[in-house]
Design goal:
- The chain is built from 3 helices and 5 strands, in the order H-E-E-E-H-E-E-H.
- It has about 140 residues and is of the alpha+beta class.
- It has a 5-stranded antiparallel beta sheet with strand order 1-2-3-5-4.
- A hairpin with a 3-residue loop joins strand 1 and strand 2.
- The structure holds adenosine monophosphate (AMP).
- Adenosine monophosphate (AMP) binds next to loops.
- The site of adenosine monophosphate has 13 residues, from loops.
């Protein structure tokens, strides 16, 4: 029943929003937070989440929060494409464990795709902290930080 149920305020993304767990932050405003996936399926794999909405999935989230998330998804997709120059880019979102969801706070995946490179296995191989920090710095520079 992972598609339905109560929101767990101890999920890892809720902890990241509260500052109780770290993240490689790329963007934050009052409503939206974006950070690097630490088990990236490709170089530049980014997650975008609502901060104020205790929504597990797309069934739960209010449309205003969803629209704010999507505006940041588009903005960061442009940044990732400009900086990393992938051949393609996937934007994805999973609802319920059978659909591939492992963290039950709604999030959008932005996954740059490079020619000839297979997609890494979902949520499985942790990236090197130094590599993530370097990528974070590179993307922040591209955004003018
Ligand atoms: P999903 O399977 O769609 O729920 O996606 C959850 C994503 O969160 C996966 O791609 C994981 O690699 C990623 N993830 C899990 N824990 C963390 C974390 N602490 N920081 C960043 N990304 C994470």
């Amino acid at each position: 029943m992972s598609l339905h149920g109560d929101y767990d305020a101890q999920n890892i993304f809720a902890q990241i929003i509260r500052g109780e767990a770290p993240c490689y932050k790329l963007y934050e405003d009052e409503d939206v937070l974006a950070f690097l996936d630490v088990f990236p399926q490709s170089y530049g794999h980014t997650l975008v989440i609502p901060k104020r909405s205790a929504a597990r999935n797309i069934l739960d989230i209010d449309v205003d929060s969803l629209a704010k998330v999507m505006a940041v998804v588009q903005r960061l997709t442009r940044v990732l494409v400009e900086e990393l120059e992938p051949a393609g880019v996937q934007v994805a979102q999973f609802n319920g464990a059978p659909a591939g969801q492992t963290v039950f706070h709604i999030h959008m995946h932005i996954v740059p795709r490079f020619a000839g490179e297979q997609l890494g296995i979902h949520a499985s191989v942790k990236a090197e902290p130094a590599e993530l920090a370097q990528l974070q710095a590179r993307l922040l520079r591209r955004m003018g930080h």
